[in-house]
Amino acid sequence: MPCSTLTAVTARAAGTDAYGDRLRDAFAGAAVDVVVGNWREAGFLAGERYDVVVADYLLGAVELHWPHGADAVLARLLGALKPGGTLLFVGVEPYESLLDRADDADRLVLDVESLGDSAAALAGEATYREVPEAWITRQVDARDGYAVVASETFPMTLSAASLRKQVTYARTTSAKIADAGLRKAYERRVAELTIEVNAWKGTHRKGRNYALVVKRS
After folding, report:
1. What's the whole-model pTM score?
2. Which long-range contacts (CB under 8 A, 24 or more apart) does 57-61 make?
3. CA 1 to CA 26: how far, in whole Å?
């Protein structure tokens, strides 16, 4: 997509030089600016307006850094659009809204994810939290001058390797639980799920990614 200027936003200062170089290569001729900051700060990019804003799996990560801040970040993104501007949004539909615990593969995916999430809660840590496509649509519909003009869904493929990464997260996080009894219980459950995941064959394709195009009038 041709553009004359491009602003990339990241929360990590490390690696931004290489990140900017890759963007300059991909968008030859564009003036590229890499901005390091936190959407939680009210003054961050305040007053800046853009023709196109791309939010690539952003809101799922918001909960990790700004608990319950997804609505505020989405409002900031919408407010950053110029009149006639476009927001391109990509996210993951939460597993619990799609999967059925009566199905063995679905149950395994849900158990692995919930184990890591609950361990994080007991360890006093935040974790990722995806938001449904319908939630985004409701937020947009509630604001005058904005509309979802296109949407698409894409299947998500999970393999045993994918689940092993999530089990590793659950193992690492549960080790931080202060209560020794709870910690040992989580260690046992991690071991049980590790056996299940290692024995699991094939792929899981009931998960779903979604993409939305939002226009500002």
Report:
1. 0.88
2. 57/90, 57/91, 57/92, 58/89, 59/91, 59/130, 59/131, 59/136, 60/91, 60/92, 60/128, 60/129, 60/130, 60/131, 61/128
3. 10
Could you tell me which residues come within 8 angstroms of residue 115 by beta carbon, excluding any fewer than 6 positions away? 167, 170, 174, 186, 189, 190, 193
Query: What would you report as the CA-atom Rg of the chain, rounded to the nearest whole angstrom?
Result: 20
pLDDT in tens, 111-140: 999 999 999 999 999 999 999 999 999 999
Q: Which two tokens stand for residue 184?
A: 């040992």
Contact 197, 126 (CB under 8 A): no
Residue 17 lies in a domain: no
Q: What is the domain-level CATH number for residue 70?
A: 3.40.50.150
Distance CA 21, CA 82 (A): 27
Residue 84, both tokens: 């006639």
Q: Which two tokens stand for residue 150?
A: 């296109």
